[in-house]
Protein backbone atom coordinates (compact mmCIF):
# COMPACT_ATOMS: atom_id res chain seq x y z
CA UNK A 1 0.00 0.00 0.00
CA UNK A 2 1.35 3.42 -0.94
CA UNK A 3 1.38 5.58 2.20
CA UNK A 4 1.40 8.86 0.29
CA UNK A 5 -0.66 8.34 -2.85
CA UNK A 6 -1.75 11.98 -2.92
CA UNK A 7 1.79 12.95 -3.86
CA UNK A 8 1.48 10.98 -7.07
CA UNK A 9 -1.17 13.17 -8.71
CA UNK A 10 -4.80 12.38 -9.42
CA UNK A 11 -6.07 8.84 -9.01
CA UNK A 12 -7.51 7.67 -12.37
CA UNK A 13 -11.24 7.18 -12.30
CA UNK A 14 -13.81 6.03 -14.86
CA UNK A 15 -17.25 7.38 -14.19
CA UNK A 16 -20.33 5.29 -14.83
CA UNK A 17 -23.02 7.46 -16.38
CA UNK A 18 -26.04 5.26 -15.88
CA UNK A 19 -27.13 6.21 -12.36
CA UNK A 20 -30.87 6.74 -12.03
CA UNK A 21 -32.61 8.94 -9.55
CA UNK A 22 -34.30 6.54 -7.10
CA UNK A 23 -36.43 9.40 -5.71
CA UNK A 24 -36.13 8.11 -2.15
CA UNK A 25 -33.44 6.77 0.17
CA UNK A 26 -32.56 3.19 -0.79
CA UNK A 27 -32.17 0.49 1.85
CA UNK A 28 -29.23 -1.75 0.96
CA UNK A 29 -28.29 -5.12 2.37
CA UNK A 30 -24.64 -4.79 3.41
CA UNK A 31 -24.26 -8.47 4.41
CA UNK A 32 -21.68 -9.27 1.67
CA UNK A 33 -19.26 -6.88 3.43
CA UNK A 34 -20.66 -6.98 6.97
CA UNK A 35 -18.12 -6.53 9.77
CA UNK A 36 -19.26 -9.95 10.99
CA UNK A 37 -18.36 -11.65 7.74
CA UNK A 38 -15.25 -13.80 7.93
CA UNK A 39 -14.57 -14.77 4.32
CA UNK A 40 -15.67 -12.20 1.78
CA UNK A 41 -17.05 -13.35 -1.58
CA UNK A 42 -15.56 -10.87 -4.06
CA UNK A 43 -18.30 -11.60 -6.60
CA UNK A 44 -20.91 -10.23 -4.22
CA UNK A 45 -19.07 -6.99 -3.60
CA UNK A 46 -19.36 -5.47 -7.07
CA UNK A 47 -23.21 -5.35 -7.15
CA UNK A 48 -23.20 -3.77 -3.70
CA UNK A 49 -20.55 -1.25 -4.77
CA UNK A 50 -22.64 -0.32 -7.82
CA UNK A 51 -25.79 0.15 -5.71
CA UNK A 52 -23.90 2.30 -3.22
CA UNK A 53 -22.49 4.60 -5.88
CA UNK A 54 -25.89 4.79 -7.56
CA UNK A 55 -27.45 5.98 -4.31
CA UNK A 56 -24.62 8.35 -3.45
CA UNK A 57 -24.63 9.94 -6.88
CA UNK A 58 -28.36 10.69 -6.69
CA UNK A 59 -29.92 11.18 -3.28
CA UNK A 60 -26.56 11.07 -1.46
CA UNK A 61 -27.98 8.92 1.35
CA UNK A 62 -28.57 5.18 1.97
CA UNK A 63 -29.75 3.00 4.81
CA UNK A 64 -27.61 -0.11 5.37
CA UNK A 65 -28.94 -3.29 6.93
CA UNK A 66 -26.73 -6.14 8.16
CA UNK A 67 -23.72 -3.88 8.57
CA UNK A 68 -22.32 -5.89 11.46
CA UNK A 69 -22.11 -3.21 14.16
CA UNK A 70 -23.79 -4.91 17.14
CA UNK A 71 -27.17 -3.36 17.99
CA UNK A 72 -26.39 -4.00 21.67
CA UNK A 73 -23.31 -1.77 21.49
CA UNK A 74 -25.30 1.04 19.89
CA UNK A 75 -28.07 0.76 22.55
CA UNK A 76 -25.51 0.62 25.35
CA UNK A 77 -23.83 3.78 24.06
CA UNK A 78 -27.21 5.53 23.86
CA UNK A 79 -27.99 4.49 27.46
CA UNK A 80 -24.65 5.65 28.81
CA UNK A 81 -24.89 8.92 26.90
CA UNK A 82 -28.34 9.44 28.47
CA UNK A 83 -26.71 9.11 31.88
CA UNK A 84 -24.12 11.68 30.94
CA UNK A 85 -26.65 14.16 29.54
CA UNK A 86 -28.79 13.75 32.70
CA UNK A 87 -25.92 15.08 34.88
CA UNK A 88 -26.24 18.63 36.26
CA UNK A 89 -24.98 21.39 33.98
CA UNK A 90 -22.09 22.25 36.32
CA UNK A 91 -20.84 18.65 36.18
CA UNK A 92 -21.11 18.42 32.39
CA UNK A 93 -19.22 21.70 32.12
CA UNK A 94 -16.12 19.98 33.51
CA UNK A 95 -16.06 17.92 30.31
CA UNK A 96 -16.67 20.79 27.90
CA UNK A 97 -14.95 20.63 24.54
CA UNK A 98 -11.87 22.89 24.79
CA UNK A 99 -11.73 25.59 22.09
CA UNK A 100 -8.72 24.02 20.39
CA UNK A 101 -9.92 20.39 20.55
CA UNK A 102 -12.93 18.48 19.23
CA UNK A 103 -13.41 16.04 22.10
CA UNK A 104 -15.89 16.73 24.90
CA UNK A 105 -19.30 18.09 25.75
CA UNK A 106 -21.00 20.69 23.54
CA UNK A 107 -23.83 22.47 25.35
CA UNK A 108 -27.31 23.29 24.10
CA UNK A 109 -27.47 26.02 21.42
CA UNK A 110 -23.67 26.15 21.16
CA UNK A 111 -23.66 25.15 17.50
CA UNK A 112 -25.22 26.99 14.65
CA UNK A 113 -24.90 24.85 11.54
CA UNK A 114 -26.79 27.34 9.40
CA UNK A 115 -26.22 31.08 9.72
CA UNK A 116 -29.91 31.75 8.99
CA UNK A 117 -31.05 30.23 12.28
CA UNK A 118 -30.29 30.59 16.01
CA UNK A 119 -28.22 27.90 17.80
CA UNK A 120 -29.44 24.32 17.48
CA UNK A 121 -31.63 22.84 20.22
CA UNK A 122 -29.24 19.96 20.83
CA UNK A 123 -26.35 18.99 23.05
CA UNK A 124 -23.61 16.56 22.13
CA UNK A 125 -20.69 14.58 23.48
CA UNK A 126 -17.91 14.46 20.90
CA UNK A 127 -15.50 11.55 20.81
CA UNK A 128 -12.21 12.16 19.05
CA UNK A 129 -9.65 9.76 20.52
CA UNK A 130 -6.47 11.70 19.68
CA UNK A 131 -7.94 14.80 21.42
CA UNK A 132 -9.32 12.93 24.45
CA UNK A 133 -7.46 13.38 27.69
CA UNK A 134 -8.57 11.37 30.72
CA UNK A 135 -9.93 14.60 32.25
CA UNK A 136 -12.36 14.94 29.35
CA UNK A 137 -14.08 11.59 30.09
CA UNK A 138 -16.75 11.41 32.86
CA UNK A 139 -15.21 8.24 34.26
CA UNK A 140 -16.43 8.71 37.82
CA UNK A 141 -19.90 9.87 36.87
CA UNK A 142 -20.61 7.39 34.03
CA UNK A 143 -17.92 4.71 34.38
CA UNK A 144 -18.46 2.69 31.19
CA UNK A 145 -19.15 5.55 28.83
CA UNK A 146 -15.55 5.82 27.65
CA UNK A 147 -15.19 2.12 26.92
CA UNK A 148 -18.49 1.80 25.04
CA UNK A 149 -17.86 5.01 23.08
CA UNK A 150 -14.39 3.92 22.02
CA UNK A 151 -15.65 0.49 21.03
CA UNK A 152 -18.39 1.99 18.93
CA UNK A 153 -15.97 4.53 17.44
CA UNK A 154 -13.75 1.69 16.31
CA UNK A 155 -16.63 -0.28 14.79
CA UNK A 156 -17.68 2.86 12.92
CA UNK A 157 -14.11 3.31 11.70
CA UNK A 158 -14.05 -0.25 10.36
CA UNK A 159 -17.43 0.08 8.67
CA UNK A 160 -16.53 3.45 7.15
CA UNK A 161 -13.39 1.97 5.60
CA UNK A 162 -15.43 -0.86 4.07
CA UNK A 163 -17.93 1.62 2.66
CA UNK A 164 -15.16 3.84 1.24
CA UNK A 165 -13.51 0.79 -0.29
CA UNK A 166 -16.78 -0.21 -1.97
CA UNK A 167 -17.28 3.36 -3.18
CA UNK A 168 -13.85 3.23 -4.81
CA UNK A 169 -14.86 -0.03 -6.49
CA UNK A 170 -18.19 1.39 -7.62
CA UNK A 171 -16.43 4.46 -9.03
CA UNK A 172 -13.83 2.31 -10.80
CA UNK A 173 -10.97 4.06 -9.07
CA UNK A 174 -7.84 2.14 -9.95
CA UNK A 175 -5.86 2.99 -6.83
CA UNK A 176 -8.47 1.89 -4.29
CA UNK A 177 -5.76 1.35 -1.69
CA UNK A 178 -4.71 4.97 -2.19
CA UNK A 179 -8.14 6.30 -1.27
CA UNK A 180 -8.24 4.04 1.76
CA UNK A 181 -4.76 4.95 2.91
CA UNK A 182 -5.81 8.60 2.97
CA UNK A 183 -8.13 7.52 5.84
CA UNK A 184 -5.49 5.44 7.62
CA UNK A 185 -5.26 7.56 10.76
CA UNK A 186 -8.92 7.61 11.80
CA UNK A 187 -8.90 7.56 15.60
CA UNK A 188 -5.15 7.37 15.95
CA UNK A 189 -3.41 10.39 14.46
CA UNK A 190 -3.88 13.68 12.60
CA UNK A 191 -7.33 12.96 11.21
CA UNK A 192 -10.56 14.86 11.93
CA UNK A 193 -12.91 11.86 12.25
CA UNK A 194 -15.35 12.36 15.09
CA UNK A 195 -18.16 10.41 16.70
CA UNK A 196 -20.83 12.32 18.57
CA UNK A 197 -23.73 11.22 20.68
CA UNK A 198 -26.47 13.79 20.23
CA UNK A 199 -29.43 14.61 22.44
CA UNK A 200 -32.29 16.82 21.40
CA UNK A 201 -34.15 17.60 24.65
CA UNK A 202 -37.91 18.07 24.91
CA UNK A 203 -38.73 21.38 23.23
CA UNK A 204 -38.77 24.26 25.76
CA UNK A 205 -41.87 26.50 26.08
CA UNK A 206 -40.01 29.43 24.52
CA UNK A 207 -37.95 28.92 21.39
CA UNK A 208 -36.24 31.61 19.36
CA UNK A 209 -37.61 32.52 15.95
CA UNK A 210 -36.50 29.95 13.39
CA UNK A 211 -34.87 27.74 16.00
CA UNK A 212 -34.95 23.99 15.30
CA UNK A 213 -33.21 20.86 16.56
CA UNK A 214 -30.53 20.83 13.87
CA UNK A 215 -30.40 23.43 11.12
CA UNK A 216 -30.10 22.67 7.42
CA UNK A 217 -26.56 21.65 6.64
CA UNK A 218 -24.29 19.32 4.74
CA UNK A 219 -21.54 17.34 6.45
CA UNK A 220 -17.90 18.30 5.93
CA UNK A 221 -15.92 15.12 5.48
CA UNK A 222 -15.87 11.89 3.46
CA UNK A 223 -18.92 10.00 4.72
CA UNK A 224 -21.17 10.09 7.78
CA UNK A 225 -22.77 7.15 9.60
CA UNK A 226 -25.89 7.91 11.64
CA UNK A 227 -27.69 5.73 14.18
CA UNK A 228 -31.11 7.07 15.14
CA UNK A 229 -33.15 6.07 18.17
CA UNK A 230 -36.85 5.43 17.57
CA UNK A 231 -37.85 9.10 17.47
CA UNK A 232 -38.33 10.58 14.01
CA UNK A 233 -37.14 14.01 12.96
CA UNK A 234 -34.37 13.68 10.39
CA UNK A 235 -35.26 15.15 7.00
CA UNK A 236 -33.17 14.87 3.86
CA UNK A 237 -33.42 16.99 0.74
CA UNK A 238 -34.64 14.98 -2.23
CA UNK A 239 -33.61 15.51 -5.84
CA UNK A 240 -36.33 18.21 -6.22
CA UNK A 241 -34.91 20.17 -3.31
CA UNK A 242 -37.75 19.27 -0.91
CA UNK A 243 -37.02 17.99 2.58
CA UNK A 244 -38.48 14.52 3.08
CA UNK A 245 -38.42 12.38 6.24
CA UNK A 246 -35.66 9.84 6.75
CA UNK A 247 -37.39 7.91 9.52
CA UNK A 248 -35.65 5.59 11.97
CA UNK A 249 -35.52 2.02 10.63
CA UNK A 250 -34.50 -0.53 13.27
CA UNK A 251 -31.06 -2.09 12.96
CA UNK A 252 -29.98 0.13 10.11
CA UNK A 253 -27.34 2.79 9.85
CA UNK A 254 -27.93 5.82 7.64
CA UNK A 255 -24.89 6.74 5.53
CA UNK A 256 -24.37 9.95 3.58
CA UNK A 257 -21.70 11.70 1.57
CA UNK A 258 -19.87 14.73 2.96
CA UNK A 259 -18.73 17.88 1.14
CA UNK A 260 -15.11 16.85 0.87
CA UNK A 261 -16.07 13.60 -0.87
CA UNK A 262 -18.34 15.52 -3.24
CA UNK A 263 -15.46 17.86 -4.07
CA UNK A 264 -13.02 14.94 -4.38
CA UNK A 265 -15.32 13.20 -6.88
CA UNK A 266 -15.92 16.42 -8.87
CA UNK A 267 -19.59 16.43 -7.77
CA UNK A 268 -20.22 12.87 -8.94
CA UNK A 269 -21.22 11.89 -5.38
CA UNK A 270 -23.68 14.24 -3.69
CA UNK A 271 -23.39 15.80 -0.27
CA UNK A 272 -27.06 16.32 0.51
CA UNK A 273 -28.53 18.87 2.89
CA UNK A 274 -30.43 17.54 5.90
CA UNK A 275 -31.97 18.86 9.12
CA UNK A 276 -33.94 17.94 12.22
CA UNK A 277 -37.07 20.05 12.73
CA UNK A 278 -39.05 20.59 15.92
CA UNK A 279 -41.82 17.99 16.33
CA UNK A 280 -45.29 19.29 15.45
CA UNK A 281 -47.39 17.42 18.02
CA UNK A 282 -47.51 18.27 21.70
CA UNK A 283 -46.56 14.67 22.51
CA UNK A 284 -43.59 14.88 20.13
CA UNK A 285 -42.37 18.14 21.67
CA UNK A 286 -42.25 16.47 25.08
CA UNK A 287 -40.05 13.65 23.78
CA UNK A 288 -36.27 13.80 23.59
CA UNK A 289 -34.55 12.47 20.47
CA UNK A 290 -31.13 10.83 20.34
CA UNK A 291 -28.74 9.94 17.58
CA UNK A 292 -25.11 8.95 17.17
CA UNK A 293 -23.21 10.33 14.20
CA UNK A 294 -19.77 9.24 13.01
CA UNK A 295 -18.07 11.66 10.65
CA UNK A 296 -15.30 9.90 8.71
CA UNK A 297 -12.61 12.27 7.44
CA UNK A 298 -9.42 11.84 5.42
CA UNK A 299 -6.10 12.30 7.20
CA UNK A 300 -5.34 15.97 7.80
CA UNK A 301 -2.44 16.03 5.36
CA UNK A 302 -4.32 14.27 2.56
CA UNK A 303 -4.44 16.55 -0.44
CA UNK A 304 -7.91 16.45 -1.92
CA UNK A 305 -7.41 16.62 -5.66
CA UNK A 306 -10.29 15.86 -8.05
CA UNK A 307 -10.16 12.11 -8.63
CA UNK A 308 -11.16 12.41 -12.28
CA UNK A 309 -8.21 14.71 -13.01
CA UNK A 310 -10.60 17.51 -14.01
CA UNK A 311 -9.24 20.19 -11.63
CA UNK A 312 -12.84 21.30 -11.11
CA UNK A 313 -11.78 22.36 -7.61
CA UNK A 314 -8.26 23.37 -6.59
CA UNK A 315 -6.39 20.93 -4.37
CA UNK A 316 -6.82 21.51 -0.63
CA UNK A 317 -5.62 19.54 2.36
CA UNK A 318 -8.34 17.89 4.42
CA UNK A 319 -6.96 19.75 7.46
CA UNK A 320 -7.31 23.20 5.90
CA UNK A 321 -10.80 22.42 4.65
CA UNK A 322 -11.95 21.19 8.08
CA UNK A 323 -10.51 24.28 9.77
CA UNK A 324 -12.48 26.58 7.48
CA UNK A 325 -15.74 24.71 8.13
CA UNK A 326 -15.33 24.44 11.91
CA UNK A 327 -14.57 28.13 12.20
CA UNK A 328 -17.83 28.94 10.40
CA UNK A 329 -19.84 26.63 12.73
CA UNK A 330 -18.41 27.68 16.08
CA UNK A 331 -17.65 31.38 15.62
CA UNK A 332 -21.26 32.38 15.97
CA UNK A 333 -20.89 35.81 17.57
O1 LIG B 1 -29.59 13.69 14.63
C1 LIG B 1 -29.75 13.53 13.43
O2 LIG B 1 -30.59 12.76 12.99
C2 LIG B 1 -28.93 14.28 12.44
C3 LIG B 1 -27.64 14.82 12.99
C4 LIG B 1 -26.83 15.52 11.98
O3 LIG B 1 -27.23 15.71 10.87
C5 LIG B 1 -25.50 16.03 12.33
O4 LIG B 1 -25.15 16.01 13.51
O5 LIG B 1 -24.79 16.48 11.41
UniProtKB/TrEMBL annotation:
A family per Pfam: 2OG-FeII_Oxy
Keyword list, A-Z: Iron, Metal-binding, Oxidoreductase
SUPFAM superfamilies linked to this entry: Clavaminate synthase-like
Superkingdom: Eukaryota
Domain named Fe2OG dioxygenase: residues: 189-298
Record flagged with keyword Iron: yes
InterPro entries from the UniProt entry: DIOX_N, IPNS-like_FE2OG_OXY, IPNS-like_sf, Iron_ascorbate_oxido_reductase, Oxoglu/Fe-dep_dioxygenase_dom
Gene Ontology MF annotations: metal ion binding; oxidoreductase activity
Family: Belongs to the iron/ascorbate-dependent oxidoreductase family.
Listed name of the protein: UPF0676 protein C1494.01-like
Organism field: Branchiostoma belcheri
Name of the gene: LOC109485075
Amino acid sequence: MDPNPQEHGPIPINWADDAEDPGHIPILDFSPYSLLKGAVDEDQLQPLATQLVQAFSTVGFVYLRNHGIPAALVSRTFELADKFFALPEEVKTKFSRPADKSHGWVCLERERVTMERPGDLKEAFNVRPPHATEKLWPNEEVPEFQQASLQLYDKCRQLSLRIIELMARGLNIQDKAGLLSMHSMIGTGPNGSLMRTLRYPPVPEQVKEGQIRCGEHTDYGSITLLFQDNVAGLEVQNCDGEYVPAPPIPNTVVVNIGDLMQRWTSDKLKSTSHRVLLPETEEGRKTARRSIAFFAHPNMDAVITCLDGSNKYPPITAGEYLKQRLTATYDVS
